[in-house]
C-alpha cells in the first residue's frame, strides 16, 4: 500500500494489520504480534479501531507467560471503556456486585436473560470480550 497507505487506504491498512496480528498469534510469533500491534497503535485513529489487535496482544502476553502484564493491560483498557475493576478484589466488592446484580434481576432471571434484547453498544461488547480474556 506504500508509505502513505494509512492516509490513502486507512480501512485496508487496518484490516491487513489486524489480519497480520492474528496470523502472527496463530503462528506463535509474539514478535510479529508486537510489530503488527505497534503499527496499528501508531496509526489507528479510533479507540475501537485498535481493539482487535489489543485483544490479540493480551492473548499473546498470557500465552508467553506474562499473565500479570495481560491482566494489567486488560484492566487499563476496561478503564478506557468506562468499566472499573479493582485490581485487588475485597469481600465488600463482591458483596456490592452481587447485591446490585440481584436488584437488576426479577423473580424469573432465566426468562429475563433469555428474552433480553441483543447487546448492541459497541463499548459494552468490547468490555465483554476483554473480560472473557481476563
Structure characterization notes:
The protein is mainly alpha-helical and 134 residues long. Helix content is 70%, strand content 0%. The protein contains eight helices and no strands. The longest helix is centred in the N-terminal third of the chain and has 17 residues, at 10-26. It is globular, with a radius of gyration of 18 Å. The relative contact order is 0.10. The model has no long low-confidence stretch (mean pLDDT 89).
For the record, give the distance between the C-alpha atoms at the N and C termini, rounded to a whole number: 35 Å
- Overall geometry comes to globular
Radius of gyration: 18 Å
Order of helices and strands: HHHHHHHH
The computed structural class is mainly alpha
Largest sheet composition: none
Number of strands: 0
The whole-number mean of residue pLDDT values reads: 89
Low-confidence stretches: none
Helix content: over 70%
Number of helices: 8
Binned strand content: under 5%
